[in-house]
Amino acid sequence: MTMGDGTGRDTAIDDRPAIDPPAWFVEQANVSDPSVYDAFEAEWPECWDRAGELLDWDDPYDAVFRGDERPPFEWFPGGRLNASYNCIDRHLPERKNQLALIWEGPLGDATTYTYRELYREVNAVAAALRDHGVEADDVVTIYLPMVPELPILMLACVRLGVVHNVVFAGFSADALAERMERTGSELLVTCDGYYRRGSAVAQKNKADNARIAVDQDVSVVVVERLGLDVHLGDGYYDYEALRATHDGAEVDPVPRAADDTLFRIYTSGTTGEPKAVDHTTGGYLAHVAWTAQSVLDIKPGDTYWCSADIGWITGHSYIVYGPLSLGTTTVLYNGTPDHPEKDRLWELVERYAVDVFYTAPTAVRAFMKWGEEHPAGHDLSSLRLLGTVGEPIDERAWRWYREHIGGGECPVVDTWWQTETGAILVSTLPGVDGMKPGAAGKPLPGIETGVVDPAGEGVSEGEAGELVVTRPWPGMPDALRTGEDWGAAAARGEEWRYYPEDGATIDDDGYITVLGRVDDAINVAGRRFSTMELESAITGVTGIAEAAVVGADHETTGTALYAYVSAEDGYTEADLRERIAEAVTDAIGGVAKPEAVVFTPDLPKTRSGKVMRRLLAAVANDDPLGDISALRNPEIVGELQSATPDS
């Protein structure tokens, strides 16, 4: 296999065979028949009835899909259902005493909810919201950290047919106000505060400032988490008092049409204008249930842990709706991986006997940096499957993850999807497909993708291009489903297709390697380089834990490559600097050798674990930093500025 670097030349990478899933995994996998791909293709779109059948419908759908080659598209038209019912009520006959939620706090405090207890909590909160005047199609904004009240409120909202708008707790007051303003939300639920790395965060203060900044009148419900005895003035209400008043109440779940909005979520806004994405009740829920079952291999009775924050789409899809719709036990952790110690996550995996663990490549690279002794000190034998999400994972991190967390046996699914897709579109099926470290996999059964050049034509195998989704899928958002937003396809005058703005290559087995965002490519002296390709070359050097490459202004070439690098313990900068230059030259060519290699103890990351490349570019160019409220390690900014040479 070869991979283009945008310079008109291909760069070879190892064409090693795929790693087959172990026989013991295939024997128990939810999906293990290789014919599933051909069956979905032959039966499209009726094949998605398999996803619809995972749910309970108040009114059966008339068809699986209705549409032509262009929008509008309808998924499960005529069907009516309720997401809260599907995540709780229908499990009660068999699972009322099974744990639905396990919550672990940052200070060792923990809470659990059985499905019966979750049912009682959700009903009480739904009754409180209803009596507060909230009605179907209203928008309730939820501004909470990873606490049990967050999924409880989400499920209470959808029980009433109310649209929830979850805003990541780490966002600033301005970011919260903007999202409330855009939705017209008149009810905000927040908390007095929460602990982050042992320090208290005064969350209500940010909520107060946001409330003042919006034009509409907003009522605020405050969850007490720290016992700060905060003042509740006019328009403020105590969450526990409202819930307790309705303890024991039962609220009939409101049937919703399949194309009714389930929730609104905004893209992060850390690199640009936040964009609202509305996901539907029927198509979205069916898609996340099917992918949770087939890709993440979740079974009723499993203990499953996705380490994302519910403030992002990953948490919506694969902490709340996917796992609970399948009747599993889902783990919520309100803390950081290295506090109080760097073995915190493995302590919890061992304690709760976690079956499936799903995390970000950024986290995996941090685990590598901290050392294998931390997972080695715990019994991780309960793990059956590992997954990654959020960005491409390089081969070295993939292999470390499988060896030191998965015992060299667990399959690893490298999943590609995004806020706009709602659920996974590209990945291996762990009970069917071989794994190629560094490649996400094939489009899932029923999904059709391609890799195209700027003219929209398919590229050759191994050549870099842009990933495109060429057929509708159940979890598509309203704007794409209705045709309101055709994105890049409309601009190019093409038939309907979705451009997610990610670069990719495809090999002769149909496996897609995602290269990162198209706008993350850097032009140097007329040559275009993928940041993912550069970073993969650097992190392939033994001793390098993480790397991020950005462009800086340069008098001669216009743009120079600056590599920000975090080393593993025990390696010297002098030794690594030379090996980095050699690795980049060997993998891509001397023209791609970084102008500067800046060593840093950590990379700037959002609280969801993504590297904030925008901030690194600002540091490299000595530009204003902009909004860094989503940064989880702001203390690193000064070190980066001091260590970065003038461009």
Report on the structure:
This protein is an alpha/beta fold. The protein has a domain at 521-643: GMP Synthetase, Chain A, domain 3 (2-Layer Sandwich), CATH 3.30.300. Helix content is 30%, strand content 21%. The strands form nine sheets. It has a seven-stranded mixed sheet with strand order 7-6-19-18-20-21-22, with helices on both faces. A seven-stranded mixed sheet has the order 14-13-10-8-9-16-17, with helices on both faces. A four-stranded antiparallel sheet has the order 23-24-25-26. Helix 12 links the parallel strand 18 (303-306) and strand 19. Helix 8 packs across helix 9 (203-213) and helix 14 packs across helix 16 (395-404). The longest helix has 17 residues, at 115-131. The protein is globular, with a radius of gyration of 24 Å.
